[in-house]
Specification:
alpha+beta; 3-stranded antiparallel sheet; single chain
Length: 86
């Protein structure tokens, strides 16, 4: 069962900790809908970390690395090591 969610946006990486693990797995459609409602979403997850990109070129480099399946960028690796324990 997933304990964390990684969200990549145009401004950076966000790592969320899942609060309702069992309920979350059985409510995939409800979770997707709740993302649009901050009140519901924050009951399901809590923000652990946000790592912003330095600039537009840095954001593009990270997006390309992820989409091409290239080596994971150092920013993401360091965020995961610091905020997600094994």
């Amino acid at each position: 069962m997933a304990s964390h969610i990684l969200f990549e946006s145009a401004s950076g990486y966000a790592i969320f900790e899942v609060k309702l693990r069992d309920e979350l797995a059985s409510m995939t459609e409800a979770v997707q809908t709740s993302i649009q409602d901050l009140g519901k979403f924050k009951k399901m997850v809590s923000l652990l970390s946000f790592s912003p990109f330095k600039n537009a070129a840095h954001a593009l480099e990270n997006a390309n690395d992820v989409s091409e399946g290239a080596q994971i960028h150092r920013l993401l690796v360091s965020s995961l090591h610091v905020h997600v324990s094994a």
